[in-house]
């Protein structure tokens, strides 16, 4: 996904194009890793010194709700990344050092379902954490 595609998706949903939103999406383009919200704030404040943490968080969650960004929690804080180009249901390996991700093209839910007979599963999230080859 590129900046224009992301902003067009927001426009189609009735959201305004703002310079802050544009800059947030720019930060994520060409990054194949999760980035902490506080890191995004620091980068945005270089261009928009008066922008608040609340404004950044609201925009990050809006972009997540509209499936432009994906979110996870690493070391007790929210991290975000641009949504995958991988089509279909998948999961991720996430490096706990650098935040880089690798798509996992299968889902373990079939095996897990065997152990949850009678349970009604509504949704799931499956992530694997560890060190990537570069950080290992």
From TrEMBL:
Whether NADP counts among this entry's keywords is no
Q: What is its main location?
A: cytoplasm
Tell me the superkingdom of the source. Answer: Bacteria
Check the record and name the InterPro entries matching this protein: FUR, Fur_C, WH-like_DNA-bd_sf, WH_DNA-bd_sf
Q: Where in the cell is it found?
A: Cytoplasm
What are the record keywords, sorted?
Cytoplasm, DNA-binding, Repressor, Transcription, Transcription regulation, Zinc
Q: Which CDD domains match?
A: Fur_like
Entries under PANTHER family matching the protein: FERRIC UPTAKE REGULATION PROTEIN, ZINC UPTAKE REGULATION PROTEIN
Q: Record's family?
A: Belongs to the Fur family.
UniProt name for this protein: Transcriptional repressor
């Amino acid at each position: 996904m590129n900046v224009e595609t992301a902003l067009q998706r927001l426009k189609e949903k009735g959201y305004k194009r703002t310079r802050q939103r544009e800059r947030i999406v720019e930060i994520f383009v060409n990054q194949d890793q999760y980035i902490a919200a506080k890191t995004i704030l620091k980068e945005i404040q270089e261009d928009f010194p008066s922008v608040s943490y609340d404004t950044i968080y609201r925009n990050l969650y809006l972009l997540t709700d509209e499936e432009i960004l994906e979110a996870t929690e690493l070391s007790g804080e929210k991290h975000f990344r641009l949504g995958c180009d991988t089509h279909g249901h998948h999961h991720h390996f996430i490096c706990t050092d650098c935040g880089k991700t690798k798509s996992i093209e299968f889902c373990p839910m079939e095996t897990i379902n065997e152990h949850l007979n009678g349970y009604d599963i509504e949704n799931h999230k499956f992530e694997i954490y560890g060190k990537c080859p570069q950080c290992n």
